[in-house]
Amino acid sequence: MTEIKVSHSEPVFSISSAAKLLNISVHTLRMYEKEGLIIPFKKESKQRSYSKADLDRINCIRNAINESKISINGIKTIYSLIPCWQVVNCSEEDRKKCEGYNGHGKPCWTYDHPGTVCENKNCRECEVYNNFSECGKVKELIKSI
Amino acid sequence: MTEIKVSHSEPVFSISSAAKLLNISVHTLRMYEKEGLIIPFKKESKQRSYSKADLDRINCIRNAINESKISINGIKTIYSLIPCWQVVNCSEEDRKKCEGYNGHGKPCWTYDHPGTVCENKNCRECEVYNNFSECGKVKELIKSI
DNA sequence: GAAAGTTGGTATTTATAAATATCAACAACA
DNA sequence: TGTTGTTGATATTTATAAATACCAACTTTC
User: Fold this and answer.
1) Which of A68, A85, A142 is the closest to B73 by Cβ?
2) pLDDT tens by residue, A81-109
3) Among all residues of chain A, which has the CA nearest to that of B100?
C-alpha cells in the first residue's frame, strides 16, 4: 500500500484508470464530455487526463443521474442557469455578445466566448465550472446574488 | 362553430376535455399534479378543473419532456431554483423557516409554508408558479436579480 | 517494434422513466 | 335513477436515455 500525494486538481489519471475508479466505462466518460458536462485535461497527444477533482465532479453528476433521476439534458439546463456573469463579473457589452449569457440549455463552458473576458480563459480552470458541479451549490449561488 | 370568451385563468375544462385538448391521457395529467408540476383548480367536490393558462403551462412542460429531453425530476429541480424569495420578497425570518428557500429538488409550491408570508397564499395564483413555467423565463428572472 | 492503451465512430443492449390500461367506489347531472 | 365522468391506486406497456460492445487507426511505453 503506497500513498502518493498529488494536488486535487492535478490531472494524473488516464481515462481507463478514471473509469475503473468510478466503476463506469471509458465510453461513458467520453459521452459526458461530448455532452459538455465535463472538461478533462488533454495532453498534446490529445489523450485525456483526469484529476481527483474531476472524479469528484463526475461522481456528483452520476449521483444526479442515478439517485436524483435528472436526465443529462436536465443537468445541462441546470448548469446553464448558473449566473456565470456574476461570478466572472463581465461587462454589459460582453453580456450582449455572450452565448452563455443569452443562450438556453447549455452550460456556458460549452461555448467559445469570442470578444468577451472569457475568450482567453480556460474554462477547465474557471470558478463557474469548478465550484457549482452540484445543484445545491447552484441554488446557494443564486441566493447569494 | 361557436366562440366562447373566458378569462385565460378561468378554470373551465374538465380533466377529460383538458386531456383531449392536450392529446394526452387523464392519468398523465394526474401524474404531473402528483409530481408537483401543476396545480389544477379543485371544486368543492374534489374534481379538477383546468384553465387555458393551465393548458399552456402543461404544453410547456410537455415540450421540456419531449423536445428538450428533460426528465420530470429535472424540471422539478429547475423549478426549485426559481428565486421565489425575490418574487414574493419574504423576510429573513421567513427564509430561515421556509422549506422552499432551504430545500432542494422540489418547487416551492409543493411545500406548505407554515409561519411565512406564503402560508395563506394560494400557490395556484402566485407569480412564482405562474410566470416561470418555462425554463427560459427562469433564467431571465435570475438575470434580473 | 511489439504490447497495451487511446482515439472517434457506429451499432446494440439494457434499464427505467413516462405513459397507458384497468379497477371498484364515488360524484355529477340530465 | 341511470348514464357519464371522476376519483385514487395498482399493474402493465412502451419509448428511449444511458450505458455497453465493437471497430480500425493511431499513441504511448518499455
Assistant:
1) A68
2) 999 999 999 999 999 999 999 998 999 99
3) A139
Distance B130 CA to C28 C1' (A): 30
Query: Rounded CA gap, B125 and B132, in Å?
Result: 13
Rounded Cα–Cα distance for residues A45 and B138 (Å):
41
**The whole model's pTM is what?**
0.91
Burial of A78 (0-12, 13-18, 19+ CB in 10 A): buried
Q: What does residue A11 show for φ and ψ, rounded to 5 degrees?
A: -75, 105
CA A38 – CA A41 distance, rounded (Å):
10
Instruction: Mark residues 82-141 of chain B whose C-beta is closer than 7 A to nucleic acid strand C.
Output: none
Query: Is B123 within 8 Å of B39 (Cβ atoms)?
Result: yes
pLDDT, average across residues B73-90: 95
How many A/B residue pairs have CB atoms within 8 Å?
71
Whole-angstrom CA distances from A27 to A30, A33, A34, A122 are 5, 10, 10, 24
CA A32 to chain centroid, in Å, comes to 10
| Chain B residues close to A135, C-beta within 8 Å | 77, 81, 104-105
Task: State the Cα–Cα distance between residues A26 and A121, nearest whole angstrom.
Answer: 28
Q: Which residue of A has its CA nearest to B95?
A: A143
The grid cell for A135 is 445543484
DSSP E strands in chain A: the ranges are 41-42, 48-49
Q: Say whether the CB atom of A78 is under 7 angstroms from strand D.
A: no
Which are the contacts of A96, defined by CB distance < 8 A and separation ≥ 6?
A102
Strands (E) located in B5-143: 41-42, 48-49
Interatomic CA distance for residues B34 and B32, integer angstroms? 6
